[in-house]
Amino acid sequence: MASATVNVVRYTALLSGVFYGISHRRSLQKAHDAEKEHHAIHEREHLIAQAKEAWKRKQESSKGGVITDPEDPRFDLEKLIAKWESDS
């Protein structure tokens, strides 16, 4: 049978290992959560940049085009008809 000193050392090592495992798991989880949040932020920034670029391209393409909204004060019916005739 094992002596009391050996049992104390065994259980001390066991409990130390359990507490080390818990603390190590928490630190790994915290690092993983931080990386996940960092990735999500950069993904949103990337999507916003893509949307801004698409909006800019859309605005640039409409500058050279004809205004088709009759409520717009810059609307010109003659230019619109000329554009339709050139398209067909």
TrEMBL record:
Description of how the protein assembles with itself and partners: F-type ATPases have 2 components, CF(1) - the catalytic core - and CF(0) - the membrane proton channel. CF(1) and CF(0) have multiple subunits.
Primary role: Subunit e, of the mitochondrial membrane ATP synthase complex (F(1)F(0) ATP synthase or Complex V) that produces ATP from ADP in the presence of a proton gradient across the membrane which is generated by electron transport complexes of the respiratory chain. ATP synthase complex consist of a soluble F(1) head domain - the catalytic core - and a membrane F(1) domain - the membrane proton channel. These two domains are linked by a central stalk rotating inside the F(1) region and a stationary peripheral stalk.
Keywords: ATP synthesis, CF(0), Hydrogen ion transport, Ion transport, Membrane, Mitochondrion, Mitochondrion inner membrane, Transport
Gene Ontology BP, a term: proton motive force-driven ATP synthesis
Assigned protein family: Belongs to the ATPase e subunit family.
Gene Ontology cellular component list: mitochondrial inner membrane; proton-transporting ATP synthase complex
Name of this protein: ATP synthase F(0) complex subunit e, mitochondrial
Compartments (UniProt record): Mitochondrion inner membrane
A Pfam family the protein falls into: ATP-synt_E
Any one GO molecular function term: proton transmembrane transporter activity
